[in-house]
Amino acid sequence: MTYRIFISSVQREFAKERKALADYIRKDMLLGMFFDVFLFEQTAAQDRSAQGVYLGEVRDSDIYLGLLGNEYGFEDADGVSPTEREYDLATELGKYRLAFVKRASSARVPKERALVAKVEKGVTRKSFSSFATLKKAVYEALFRFLQDRDVVNVRPFDESFSLGIKLEDLDANRIADFVRMVRAAGKVTFPAGISTEEILSRLGAWDAATGKIANAAALLFAKDPARLRPSWETKCVQLWGTAFEKPFPSYHIYRGTVFEQIDQALDFVMSRVDHWVGPRDAAESAQAPARSELPVEAVREAIVNAVCHRDYTDEGSVQVMLFRDRLEVLNPGTLPRGWTAANLLSTHDSKPHNGILATAMQWAGYVEKSGYGTEDIVRKCKEWGLQTPEYHPSAVDFRLVLWRQEVGEAADFTQVGEVGEKVGEVEVVRGRGANAETPVKSRGSVRSSRLYPPVFKGVESGGRVVRSLRDMILLSVMEHPKGRLEIAKELGKPRVFGNLVRRITTLLDDKLIELTIPEKPNSRLQKYRITKKGRQVAKLLAGHGTESAT
Hints:
With 550 residues, this protein is α/β, with parallel strands linked by helices. The chain is built from 18 helices and 21 strands.
């Protein structure tokens, strides 16, 4: 974008400075990219009055740049000079105004002295004594203009004011939620009745002198963050295998505040990996030991890092990709200068790309301790018995890989019971999503003998392919619609069970199946039919065959 500058002054007094300043702005490597200059003396002859020309140019310009000296200049019938007319119109139209006053070598005429006083009341002005000092002052002022609009990104994006956020753009409910999270985390104290301005000020997102609000406030509390930047989103996709290939079993785009995106992305992943619990030990605890295929703390930390440290000036988005063998989290942005992936494998100084966001995350309990997150991910995955996570920084983005659980032998796994049902020494607890059907290795009597899949969909183990409950439901409705009870009986169950309902819900969410009576979702006659997208996935599943075992 090019901004037009209108240079206003008494032409006779500043003839040399006007031309030299226009040439300097046009030829400067940085300023010439963003600014064009209007000089009245360089316009072609027109069938318009001089006043009509220069006032028209004020209207069409973005910036008024006034040079004030000793002389007041030509006066019209009302005794007002063109310079004062131009300044008054720029003020009336709300133009961005810059004023530079030459140090007087002789007494200013009274009207010019009055104009200088008038300008000083309306805008901060800079003085100059030579063209060299004028050039420096103009460069600094125009550079600040670009910086405030985030055209030149000197400050981190979350600390700049380029979005022009106002208090009315922020959501009071989201701010109240943040206060509750901060109080629950207990890392800082927020007094009762704390104002929005005070919260923003403590975060470093409020300039008390100007009333400006930093961009971070939009990411944290805006009513509609995606309206400000469509790329502020997190894309989550579940993949069929180990390569990025369609069709996708599940694909969701999450928008909203950074907190909401983190929560939704975490739920997406953890509802699509496996979960199980071991036997209770009454002597030690009434709670059965629970385990997920991936440590939730490591997954959360990976997503928090991606959302918190991404480059928000980039048009790319955060991507969370759940492959058959791994989880990849990718975000636009690079490591601090001089850093490599090796820096992330040990304790290091915290150098957040977005300092205000990092502070808010820590206060709200999303980050435990600055500088330890990447090391914690490695440690937690190793403690979980997983392969060491991998960090892959590049010149444009950053990718983290968390490896999923090894599949093991299918014969070692047997499904035991339904949700919350105790069978022998094991109580089965199911996850909330697509791939939460991991059979629990039994220790004791087992009542059910039908095999539901271990760990990964479509994984070949010992020459056999095993299926998840979600896949089996999809295959069940491939030929013709079925109700819940019909599907349950086809799976060898006498009645509808809780995990079946949850798997049907995720299939509906992912648009792999649909209701036959959508206007009456709770109808007793309701059935489920496969969609075009679901048929693509089901054909891939059917191509691998099915497997059951006793």
